[in-house]
């Protein structure tokens, strides 16, 4: 646990208050924040465009609906709503001052040729450790890390199979009608031929069962934790914290029961289970933009933030680390402090200069002011 | 100012660190203390200043406003919660924007943590851990009427100036009767650094 982020060697503390890095007002280069109405209109437009593009992609990818499976129509419709919701909320999110600046700095670092030349491995490494293996979760709790990995890889596998399948992009066809030889086609092009009776065939046809087996223990652990861990219980909300876990478990269990019904019950109860599974999946897809699952969409932006800080820190020979104006301890990188001050000015927080002091010095200076001007000697 | 809240009286603080130890026992951040105990004139005075989250009301929670991930929730009763673990990206915007220097960050865990007024306790009418153990009443939890019943005539202030900006808070500080008419100085503008006048 630290207060100021530990960065590279700081520059010597300057003699007195001055703008960070002596830069020009960062707010001046940024357009003024939009009104909520304008943001909503823009978000609706972006959502409509993205969902329309998805519909076009479904029609074209399924070879003008020839490969489209009408039994999966509710799933496909839900993904169109999902596309609208995600695009809408994403647009609203990145319109807020803090997120807008992060978004720009993140993508700026991402597309920077200079950054790529100086640290070509930084981005792939961050994507792997931050998004893939989620090392930061291990620092919070090993058990939560393990459970989240199960949920993450399970959901990723399920999404990689389900989405293209419901859009009619994947097809599995057999020239003999009932197999065992099958061909997997993407957009009509054959990519793989396999025997449904061997291990490859089993894996191909049970991918979603494997995903369910990964998700159930992971989501089950989190649900158990939500019932038992007093820290997790503090301030938890049913719709935000518990519904997503229940949804994942219902989807996974009903999905496995479909296989169970098919293998052991000769299809008994299959139709009911299929409807229950479909309803739970459709609900979850539509819920994604409005609840806890939105972190799936938000989290990649954090890589941009990390990259922005990392690449700024690498330039520290040029004095890129900003030191507290009082104690000289590093506050953060100078471009980061400048970016934060711009955000504070966007928000009309009139104490942006205060960001040039470390948290401890802010408290000590406030204590000194109280001591000097309010209650002398704390008597 | 919230109905039941913390009242800080630095004049009563003896720097015993009981609040720091008790804070570690809070369920929402077990093992990590979120209260700060600073010595503003270290070496020359024993004066100490406990700092909890002030739960800013106007502007509402600057930490939450600058958060790029919408991770900091303000509950309807005005309590500014610590970052949602799902959303926090560990950018430290809140740490460096907070005018009171309250939030902490764990850079490995990419997670901000801060005083949440012991929400697991205060939501059920119990006092926060720090106020429960404070032996001198430097941290008092209750309503202003309850405070005055114990300390007749005591005056409190819930607004602080930072340069030209005044921040109103949910947590209040005890001030002398003649100083209650104006906001408490927050330390900005800085007039002196390490003994050197920088005005």
UniProtKB/TrEMBL annotation, chain B:
Residues 4-34, 43-77, 79-108 form the 4Fe-4S ferredoxin-type domain. The keyword Secreted does not apply. Gene3D superfamilies: 3.30.70.20. It holds the Pfam family Fer4_11. Signal peptide: none annotated. InterPro entries: 4Fe4S_Fe-S-bd (IPR017896), 4Fe4S_Fe_S_CS (IPR017900), ET_IronSulfur_Cluster-Binding (IPR050954). Keywords: 4Fe-4S, Iron, Iron-sulfur, Metal-binding. PANTHER family: PROTEIN NRFC, PROTEIN NRFC HOMOLOG. This is 4Fe-4S dicluster domain-containing protein. It comes from Streptomyces bikiniensis.
């Amino acid at each position: 646990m630290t207060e100021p982020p530990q960065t590279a060697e700081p520059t010597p503390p300057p003699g007195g208050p001055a703008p960070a890095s002596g830069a020009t007002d960062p707010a001046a280069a940024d357009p003024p924040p939009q009104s909520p109405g304008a943001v909503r209109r823009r978000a609706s437009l972006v959502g409509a465009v993205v969902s329309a593009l998805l519909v076009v992609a479904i029609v074209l990818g399924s070879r003008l609906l020839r490969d489209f499976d009408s039994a999966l129509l509710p799933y496909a419709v839900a993904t169109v709503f999902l596309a609208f919701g995600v695009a809408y909320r994403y647009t609203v999110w990145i319109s807020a001052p803090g997120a807008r600046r992060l978004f720009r700095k993140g993508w700026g670092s991402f597309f920077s040729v200079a950054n790529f030349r100086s640290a070509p491995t930084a981005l792939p490494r961050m994507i792997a450790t931050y998004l893939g293996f989620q090392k930061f979760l291990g620092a919070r709790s090993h058990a939560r890390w393990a459970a989240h990995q199960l949920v993450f890889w399970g959901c990723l596998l399920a999404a990689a199979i389900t989405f293209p399948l419901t859009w009619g992009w994947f097809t599995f066809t057999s020239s003999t009608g009932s197999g065992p030889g099958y061909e997997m086609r993407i957009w009509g092009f054959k990519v793989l031929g396999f025997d449904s009776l061997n291990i490859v065939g089993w894996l191909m046809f049970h991918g979603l069962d494997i995903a369910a087996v990964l998700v159930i223990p992971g989501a089950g652990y989190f649900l158990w934790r939500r019932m038992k861990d007093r820290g997790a219980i503090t301030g938890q909300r049913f719709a935000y914290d518990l519904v997503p876990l229940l949804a994942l478990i219902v989807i996974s269990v009903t999905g496995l029961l479909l296989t169970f019904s098919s293998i052991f019950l000769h299809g008994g109860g299959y139709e009911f289970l299929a409807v229950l599974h479909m309803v739970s999946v459709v609900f979850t897809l539509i819920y994604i933009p409005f609840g806890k699952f939105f972190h799936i969409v938000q989290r990649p932006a954090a890589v941009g933030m990390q990259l922005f800080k990392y690449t700024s820190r690498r330039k520290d020979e040029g004095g890129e680390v900003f030191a507290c104006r009082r104690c000289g301890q590093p506050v953060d990188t100078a471009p980061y402090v400048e970016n934060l001050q711009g955000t504070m000015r966007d928000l009309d927080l009139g104490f942006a200069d205060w960001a040039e002091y470390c948290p401890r010095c802010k408290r000590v200076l406030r204590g000194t002011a109280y001591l000097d001007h309010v209650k002398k000697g704390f008597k | 100012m919230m109905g039941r809240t913390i009242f800080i009286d630095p004049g009563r603080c003896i720097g015993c660190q009981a609040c720091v130890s008790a804070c570690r026992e809070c369920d929402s951040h077990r093992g990590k203390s979120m209260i700060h105990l600073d010595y503003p004139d270290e070496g020359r005075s024993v004066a100490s200043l406990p700092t909890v989250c002030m739960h800013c009301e106007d502007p509402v929670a600057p930490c939450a406003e600058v958060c790029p991930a919408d991770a900091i929730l303000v509950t309807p009763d005005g309590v500014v919660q610590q970052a949602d673990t799902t959303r926090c990206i560990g950018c430290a915007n809140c740490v460096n924007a907070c005018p009171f220097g309250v939030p902490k960050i764990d850079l490995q865990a990419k997670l901000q943590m801060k005083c949440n007024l012991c929400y697991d306790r205060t939501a059920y009418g119990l006092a926060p851990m720090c106020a429960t153990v404070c032996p001198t009443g430097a941290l008092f939890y209750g309503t202003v009427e309850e405070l005055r019943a114990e300390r007749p005539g005591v005056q409190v202030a819930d607004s602080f100036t930072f340069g030209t900006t005044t921040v109103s808070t949910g947590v209040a500080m005890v001030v002398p009767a003649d100083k209650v008419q104006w906001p408490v100085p927050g330390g900005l503008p800085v007039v002196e650094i390490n003994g050197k006048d920088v005005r």
